[in-house]
Automatic annotation (TrEMBL):
Pfam families: KduI (PF04962). Binds 1 zinc ion per subunit. Keywords: Isomerase, Metal-binding, Zinc. It catalyses: 5-dehydro-4-deoxy-D-glucuronate = 3-deoxy-D-glycero-2,5-hexodiulosonate. This is 4-deoxy-L-threo-5-hexosulose-uronate ketol-isomerase. Gene3D superfamilies: Jelly Rolls (2.60.120.10), pectin degrading enzyme 5-keto 4- deoxyuronate isomerase, domain 1 (2.60.120.520). Pathway: Glycan metabolism; pectin degradation; 2-dehydro-3-deoxy-D-gluconate from pectin: step 4/5. The gene is kduI. One of its GO terms (molecular function) is 4-deoxy-L-threo-5-hexosulose-uronate ketol-isomerase activity. Zn(2+) binds at H193, H195, E200, H242. Catalyzes the isomerization of 5-dehydro-4-deoxy-D-glucuronate to 3-deoxy-D-glycero-2,5-hexodiulosonate. It is an enzyme of class 5 (isomerase).
Length: 275
């Protein structure tokens, strides 16, 4: 496994960052090393952002930052397959995962195996500390709570698929889902928002070849941008907006952890208020 730690950054410090410092603090560039598991342990609500790209079965092991006997000893995890058809085994039970299907695994599960497949599955995951053990469950796109937002006229017509949220299944603090931008729409999360009670991570995928997304972050009146490629992720501190405009349409996974499980607890920022 490859792992790294990202410490929390104060907004006053982030304001002073040059491009490379911003990228080092908030952008995750390589989530899928071949036949390996990547883990980024963030100090934002201790959310772990990771990826698994198996060509042989890969087991999610504990690692030093956890000081735990096994990965989910004190944690829960949400896994979304962003590649071709795949399979994850949890304590001996197999869960087939098609593209964009999600698996929630509750605290206490001891063995998680990411399997390879002819269609090249890629497993993106978020894991957060958990106070109790909720049942492991697969969630398909059809089971998600789905909301359509925006319009083509404002270039932000998109479908939000809430997969691992408390209207679908119980979780301790994790919430995860997908947002798909319609053809011709490029803006996600516009109007933007902050939620000081939860941090968030965005993982961009299905970004067409040679296209990029300019991800906007920062306090609403101190915004900065990060150019993000396909299969890269951005850590969004609780004080930061998290929005993006692509050079085409694209899809992304959002994941959150923190004080509450209330997806709608957001402080909206009007486009005209931002600087
Ligand atoms: O396009 C959007 O709007 C989103 O996907 C918003 C995220 O789900 C989010 O930021 C939830 O807090
Ligand atoms: Zn948000």
């Amino acid at each position: 496994m490859k792992s790294e730690i990202r410490y929390a950054i104060h907004p006053d410090a982030a304001k002073t960052f040059q491009t490379q410092q911003l990228r080092d603090a908030f952008l995750i560039e390589e989530l899928f090393p071949e036949n390996n598991i990547y883990l980024c342990y963030t100090h934002y609500d201790r959310l772990i952002v990771g990826g698994a790209n198996p060509t042989t079965p890969l087991t999610l092991e504990t690692f030093d930052a956890l000081k735990a006997d096994f990965f989910l000893q004190r944690r829960e995890i949400g896994i979304i397959n962003v590649g071709g058809k795949g399979k994850v085994t949890v304590d001996g039970t197999d869960y087939a995962l098609e593209n964009k299907e999600a698996l929630y695994v509750g605290r206490g599960a001891k063995e998680i195996i990411f399997h390879p497949g002819a269609e090249k599955p890629l497993y993106y995951f978020n894991s957060a500390p958990a106070h109790t053990a909720y049942p492991t469950r697969k969630v398909s796109i059809g089971e998600a709570e789905t909301v359509v937002l925006g319009a083509l006229e404002t270039s932000n017509h998109r479908t939000i698929r809430k997969l691992l949220v408390n209207s679908v299944l119980p979780t301790c603090q994790l919430q995860m889902g997908l947002t798909e931008l319609n053809v011709g729409s490029v803006w996600n999360t516009m109007p933007a928002h902050v939620h000081d009670r939860r941090m968030e991570a965005y993982f961009y995928f299905d970004v067409p070849a040679n296209q990029v997304v300019s991800h906007f972050m920062g306090e609403p009146t101190e915004t900065r941008h990060l150019f993000v490629k396909n299969h890269q992720a951005v850590i969004s501190p609780p004080w930061s907006i998290h929005s993006g405009a692509g050079t085409s349409n694209y899809t992304f996974v959002w994941g959150m952890a923190g004080e509450n499980l209330d997806y709608s607890d957001m402080d909206a920022v009007a486009p005209t208020q931002m600087r």
